């Protein structure tokens, strides 16, 4: 039983981190209509800045710089590339983002090489144990922080003018601009927010139990894609729920792999996508995606 | 001497650098006045509003000549957000509220340019005073409001910036007469609070009632202007836009009516209209019951109307008949076939064609191609024969093109056959959609608000066209519509819905006298 | 399949023709001022230079370690050249970057094959797997391709030590014989699918069967950097030791999580599993406590003349460079090829085929501690040695590993390669 609970706790905390990443995908998509395949390398950039700077300036200052740097990188990608595409087909933008991802990733890989850069977090390799359930301290903090961040996001989107303007622009950009909302600003805000969330997720993905920052971190961001898709492309709540589902299912699939041998090895790789496909078969627009308006 | 708030001088607008939508248009709105711009569909009314609110770019339009001054500023140097900050706000056509945002959030989005919290709160108070229903429903999602409430929300949202000039694009579109009157009163109140209004209306009666001055816009130029009273008195306006003094059927004898309504449509099959029987139809969405045990029968070859206030369940009913929605219980038979459980393409195969309230056409394709797509169901030769350009296929293609031309002539869209649909106005698109439905040679035609957004003269043309196809093709028609003169003049039988229930049925004469109907729907405006 | 073979043969034919065209009649050409006079030469050898190729990863995931190897290899041949070269000729190294992309590696190989006498290195599992069959068809020496057992089927491949499978079999033997693991115990194997990890698993399974242990396999990929779930599953299964056929990121995560769960059992890693930078991560203490590695190449800190020479050379060439097992490995690989080149020269046949033939005559080669035993390359189907160094992670030792000794267990001896 405590084994199950440990796996569950791990899955939930990992799922919340995936949620942070998936929410970034959603926000960029709703604010600028772009499938942001450069998200992984933005995440890696944030984590890389933290790892490089934590020595000279200390962990917390490095985290602030890393978050700001990733946000700024997002804003730059949007300003230089996305906005100039204007009304181009969304496919073009997605391919362009793949290109950006490869460029950033190549440069970061060149800088990191095959070293593993420690993230230098104060929680190190500590573990918390509550009644037989053990969880790395970093994961417990990540889970708590993710909940706080989601609360702040809720506040932003429901209670502040900027947030409501962002939602209005996402729902109907043409009408929003008739209301005086500048789409260039809501777009920039979306990219900045997504970058910041990615950097936070990156710090925790590079913390214990992972060894530190390596190029593989950018790829692990893509584990959030099934979460994004199954939650419904344009739903923040869906992205969070999707992250939790994928996190728990992955942890349980790996944890019980020896009991599921008839399905073959390496289940953890396959299961997120299998779950995504199953959900999409039942609900083609995802768990929380906008279906066609029902009221006539 | 009144102070000009907005002056538009000699304005010209092109779309995609090709289609000229406006030329030499000059309009003036004095401070503290209400000005209406009347005109048929495609006259360029919406284009004019978008030019003023600096939002042409998003739809591919550009100002090529002329100047727009507002409150002393040259608007050419401002973007849409800049225009809002200068004090003019547009309420777009079709309301366009943010459906997933609550009422309060919609208003908050409207106030994005207002930095001062107190000013926002005061503006919200004013809006709630003007529209008490919005205060009541402030935590509901906008998408759940009725059509009239959505229009109120769209206006309230625009008022959040406390604009000096409000631009309204067709505020009465798709609303029941009672609500149209209410919206008219509200415009009066907004004006009384010191906001000037520039209003675009297809409903000329409503436009002239609330405006001090009016302009008539036709095919991109101003053809008449003057005080509302002057314009309302001219014969031309009375005939074309008001329908005053003419019974609805007699409207067909005005200039706009077809000269020769016999267009020689022929069926390429021997299909015959059959009886449509709706029995105990119930539709629920989640907790909402949209239709509750509704029954009616459309006899073969007749025109039958479905009327009722916004939200009565009319479109839901059409959507079930066309196969877009599934019935919760009850049956629908067309002839011997039960269509309740059929997918929409099977229903189409039975000879049922429909139009949509929100037009669904291929926007990039030409009108001709859209109509040819409609012919697909009746074409005999296969794709291979067409690809090989066999003689039989070539003969058929000639015949098809001729059939399309006749339909276009009937609906008076012959002159736009080679234009892309996205360059057409709303009213023309409605006609193209109707043409596409006709092209399939249906035996039953389902029309969802066929004349919404049309002037009186245009709807008279549409009525005559519907009558002609019914006569020549012997088909049945089931239509949903708010325009009472149109319905009363056209339908042979009417079913009235309210809150998802059938409250009356009978001939137009019976229905007009039914006290229940008067109470629920027609209100005083029916007189 | 048949089609592919035919294509390969046709390509080989083309290359052979090209080679023949690009060289003057070997018998008629005097070998320049060389003392040996009668040496036949082919591609990659002129009167005064011998060109060897390095197809490595300078822009992909293994760029840092690859750069260390390039530096050390260059330094080695610079030294050879100052001491008079090989066969009276200077050795030049042609370094190309495949970025860990097999397609690119194949394209680069094709452009290189007609200019080099041997390939000092083709770095990476998938890249060397792509190039090996082509090089075999061309009869070209290929070294520095890692330790996957599949390379043993190629006559032209010089495996730089023993295989991953024998490393893992030794790990099991060491657990039983030196650390006292009881029969019936369970041993986890966490491995990458593919030539590397699967080979490691096969060795561990063979040894476990011999020694009466049970293997608990956990398959992972290089993108898994959080091994919490795997660690929990291993703890649940009750393992008494774990073998890793993975990369440093996975080792750090697994070691850290297992220690955090209170499961302090020995962890054994194959050669590529360890990197000294791991000791600076939060997992450092856990690694120092539990981690062992089984390598046929000597760790950086081993006090033996061969390793000392490698260190001296590297410290002179790159005083601030990263230190690690790559340094002795690169030195040893250069030494292996140099031995083959000298052998070919002595046999009077410095053609690519001559180099392969000389490599296959190498026996009893003493590397002065770079490898634990003398090496024997005469049988292509057998690794040159089955003995490994067993080392422990240590923050004190240079390169992060402190050598415990050499070891060759009974299961490692009986493991049927190929």
TrEMBL record, chain A:
Entry's localization field: Cell membrane
Protein's membrane topology: Multi-pass membrane protein
Keywords: Amino-acid transport, Cell membrane, Membrane, Transmembrane, Transmembrane helix, Transport
Entry annotated with the keyword Protein biosynthesis: no
Keyword Lyase assigned: no
TM region positions: 12-31, 60-82, 116-134, 140-157, 188-206, 212-230, 237-256, 262-282
Pfam families from the UniProt entry: BPD_transp_2
UniProt similarity note: Belongs to the binding-protein-dependent transport system permease family. LivHM subfamily.
Protein name (record): Branched-chain amino acid ABC transporter permease
From TrEMBL, chain B:
Keyword entries, A-Z: Amino-acid transport, ATP-binding, Nucleotide-binding, Transport
Pfam families: ABC_tran (PF00005), BCA_ABC_TP_C (PF12399)
GO molecular function, one term: ATP binding
InterPro entries noted in UniProt: AAA+_ATPase (IPR003593), ABC_transporter-like_ATP-bd (IPR003439), ABC_transporter-like_CS (IPR017871), BCA_ABC_TP_C (IPR032823), BCAA_Transport_ATP-bd_LivF (IPR052156), P-loop_NTPase (IPR027417)
CDD domains in alphabetical order: ABC_Mj1267_LivG_branched, ABC_TM1139_LivF_branched
Entry keyword Methyltransferase: no
Domain ABC transporter residue range list: 6-244, 276-524
Recorded superkingdom: Bacteria
Similarity comment: family membership: Belongs to the ABC transporter superfamily.
Record-given protein name: ATP-binding cassette domain-containing protein
Organism: Pseudonocardia humida
Lineage, top ranks: Bacteria, Bacillati, Actinomycetota, Actinomycetes, Pseudonocardiales
From TrEMBL, chain C:
Ranges for domain Leucine-binding protein: 49-394
Pfam family, one: Peripla_BP_6
Cited PROSITE patterns: PROKAR_LIPOPROTEIN (PS51257)
Gene3D superfamilies for this protein: 3.40.50.2300
Signal peptide bounds: 1-19
Keywords: Signal
Family of the protein in this entry: Belongs to the leucine-binding protein family.
This protein's name: ABC transporter substrate-binding protein
Species per Swiss-Prot/TrEMBL record: Pseudonocardia humida
């Amino acid at each position: 039983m405590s084994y199950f609970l440990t796996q569950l706790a791990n899955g939930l905390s990992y799922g919340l981190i995936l949620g942070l990443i998936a929410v970034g995908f959603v926000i960029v998509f709703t604010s600028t209509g772009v499938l942001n395949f450069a998200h992984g390398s933005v995440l890696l950039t944030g984590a890389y800045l933290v790892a490089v700077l934590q020595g000279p300036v200390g962990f917390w200052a490095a985290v602030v710089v890393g978050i700001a740097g990733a946000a700024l990188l997002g804003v730059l990608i949007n300003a230089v590339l996305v906005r100039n595409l204007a009304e181009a087909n969304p496919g073009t933008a997605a391919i362009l983002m793949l290109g950006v991802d490869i460029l950033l990733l190549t440069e970061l890989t060149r800088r990191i090489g095959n070293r593993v850069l420690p993230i230098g977090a104060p929680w190190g390799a500590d573990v918390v144990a509550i009644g037989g359930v053990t969880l790395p301290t970093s994961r417990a903090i990540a889970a708590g922080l993710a909940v706080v961040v989601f609360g702040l996001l809720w506040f932003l989107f429901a209670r502040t003018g900027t947030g409501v303007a962002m939602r209005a622009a996402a729902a109907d950009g043409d009408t929003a601009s008739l209301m005086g909302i500048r789409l260039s600003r809501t777009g920039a805000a979306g990219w900045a927010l997504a970058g910041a969330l990615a950097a936070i997720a990156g710090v925790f993905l590079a913390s214990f139990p992972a060894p530190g920052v390596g190029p593989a971190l950018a790829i692990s961001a893509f584990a959030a894609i099934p979460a994004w898709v199954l939650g419904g492309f344009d739903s923040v709540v869906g992205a969070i729920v999707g992250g939790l589902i994928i996190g728990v299912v992955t942890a349980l699939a790996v944890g019980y792999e020896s009991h599921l041998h008839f399905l073959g090895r390496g289940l953890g790789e396959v299961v997120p996508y299998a779950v995504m496909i199953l959900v999409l078969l039942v609900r083609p627009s995802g768990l929380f995606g906008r279906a066609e308006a029902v009221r006539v | 001497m009144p102070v000009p708030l907005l002056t538009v001088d000699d304005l010209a607008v092109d779309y995609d650098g090709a289609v000229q939508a406006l030329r030499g248009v000059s309009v003036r709105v004095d401070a503290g006045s209400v000005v209406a711009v009347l005109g048929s569909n495609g006259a360029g009314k919406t284009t004019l509003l978008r030019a003023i609110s600096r939002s042409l770019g998003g739809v591919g339009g550009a100002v090529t000549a002329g100047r727009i001054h507002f409150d002393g500023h040259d608007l050419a140097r401002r973007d849409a957000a800049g225009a809002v900050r200068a004090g003019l706000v547009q309420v777009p056509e079709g309301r366009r509220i943010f459906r997933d945002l609550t009422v309060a959030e919609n208003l908050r989005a409207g106030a994005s340019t207002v930095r001062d919290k107190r000013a926002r709160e005061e503006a919200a108070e004013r809006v709630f005073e003007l529209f008490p229903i919005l205060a009541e429903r402030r935590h509901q999602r906008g998408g759940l409001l009725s059509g009239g409430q959505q229009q109120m929300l769209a206006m309230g949202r625009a008022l959040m910036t406390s604009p000096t000039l409000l631009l309204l694009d067709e505020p009465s579109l798709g609303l029941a007469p009672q609500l149209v009157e209410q919206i008219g009163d509200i415009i009066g109140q907004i004006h009384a609070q010191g906001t000037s209004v520039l209003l675009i209306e297809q409903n000329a009666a409503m436009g002239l009632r609330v405006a001090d001055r009016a302009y008539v816009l036709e095919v991109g130029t101003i053809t008449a202007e003057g005080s509302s009273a002057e314009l309302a008195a001219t014969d031309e306006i009375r005939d074309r836009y008001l329908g005053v003094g003419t019974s609805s059927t007699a409207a067909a004898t005005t200039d706009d009516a077809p000269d020769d309504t016999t267009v020689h449509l022929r069926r390429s099959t021997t299909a015959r209209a059959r009886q449509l029987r709706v029995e105990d139809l119930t539709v629920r969405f989640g907790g909402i019951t949209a239709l509750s045990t509704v029954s009616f029968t459309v006899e073969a070859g007749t025109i039958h109307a479905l009327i009722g206030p916004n939200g009565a369940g009319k479109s839901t009913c059409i959507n079930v008949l066309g196969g877009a929605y599934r019935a919760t219980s009850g049956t629908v038979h067309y002839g011997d076939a039960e269509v309740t459980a059929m997918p929409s393409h099977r229903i189409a195969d039975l000879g049922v064609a429909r139009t949509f309230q929100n037009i669904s056409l291929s926007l990039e394709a030409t009108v001709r191609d859209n109509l040819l797509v409609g012919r697909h169901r009746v074409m005999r030769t296969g794709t291979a024969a067409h690809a090989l350009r066999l003689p039989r296929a070539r003969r058929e293609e000639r015949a098809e093109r001729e059939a399309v031309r006749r339909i276009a002539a009937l609906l008076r869209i012959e002159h736009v056959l080679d234009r892309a649909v996205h360059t057409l106005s709303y009213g023309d698109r409605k006609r193209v959609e109707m043409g596409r439905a006709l092209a399939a040679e249906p035996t039953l035609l389902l029309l969802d608000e066929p004349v919404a957004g049309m002037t009186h003269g245009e709807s008279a043309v549409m009525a005559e066209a519907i009558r002609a196809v019914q006569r020549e093709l012997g088909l049945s028609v089931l239509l949903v519509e708010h325009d009472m003169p149109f319905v009363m003049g056209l339908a042979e039988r009417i079913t009235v819905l309210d809150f998802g229930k059938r409250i009356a049925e009978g001939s137009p004469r019976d229905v007009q006298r039914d006290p229940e109907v008067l109470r629920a729907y027609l209100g005083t405006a029916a007189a | 399949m048949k089609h592919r073979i035919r294509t390969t043969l046709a390509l080989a034919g083309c290359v052979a023709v090209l080679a023949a065209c690009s060289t003057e009649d070997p018998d008629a050409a005097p070998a320049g001022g060389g003392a040996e006079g009668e040496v036949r030469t082919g591609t990659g050898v002129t009167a005064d230079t011998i060109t060897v190729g390095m197809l490595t990863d300078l822009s992909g995931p293994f760029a840092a370690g690859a750069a260390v190897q390039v530096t050390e290899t260059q330094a080695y041949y610079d030294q050879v050249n100052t001491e008079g070269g090989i066969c009276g000729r200077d050795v030049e190294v042609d370094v190309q970057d495949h970025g860990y992309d097999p397609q690119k590696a194949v394209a680069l190989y094709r452009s290189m094959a007609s200019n080099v006498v041997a390939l000092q290195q083709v770095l990476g599992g998938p890249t060397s797997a792509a190039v090996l069959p082509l090089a075999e068809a061309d009869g070209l020496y290929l070294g520095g391709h890692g330790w996957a057992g599949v390379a043993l089927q190629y006559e032209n491949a010089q495996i730089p030590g023993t295989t991953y499978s024998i490393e893992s079999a030794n790990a099991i033997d060491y657990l039983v014989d030196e650390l006292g693991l009881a029969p019936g115990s369970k041993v986890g194997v966490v491995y990458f699918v593919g030539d590397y990890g699967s080979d490691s698993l096969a060795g561990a399974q063979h040894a476990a069967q011999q020694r009466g242990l049970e293997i608990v396999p956990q398959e992972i990929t290089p993108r898994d950097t959080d091994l919490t779930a795997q660690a929990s599953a291993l703890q649940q299964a009750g393992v008494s030791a774990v073998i890793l056929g993975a990369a440093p990121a996975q080792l750090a995560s697994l070691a850290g999580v297992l220690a955090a769960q209170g499961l302090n059992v020995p962890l054994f890693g194959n050669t590529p599993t360890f990197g000294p930078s791991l000791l600076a991560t939060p997992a450092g203490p856990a690694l120092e406590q539990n981690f062992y590695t089984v390598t046929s190449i000597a760790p950086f800190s081993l006090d033996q003349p061969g390793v000392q020479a490698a260190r001296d050379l590297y410290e002179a060439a790159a005083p601030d460079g990263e230190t690690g097992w790559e340094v002795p490995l690169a030195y040893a690989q250069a030494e292996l090829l140099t031995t083959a080149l000298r052998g070919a020269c002595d046999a009077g046949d410095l053609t690519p085929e001559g180099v392969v033939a000389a490599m296959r005559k190498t026996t009893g080669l003493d590397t002065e501690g770079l490898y634990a035993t003398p090496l024997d390359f005469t049988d292509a189907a057998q690794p040159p040695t089955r003995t490994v160094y067993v080392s422990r992670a240590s923050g004190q030792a240079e390169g992060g590993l402190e050598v415990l000794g050499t070891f060759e267990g009974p299961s490692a001896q009986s493991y049927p390669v190929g």
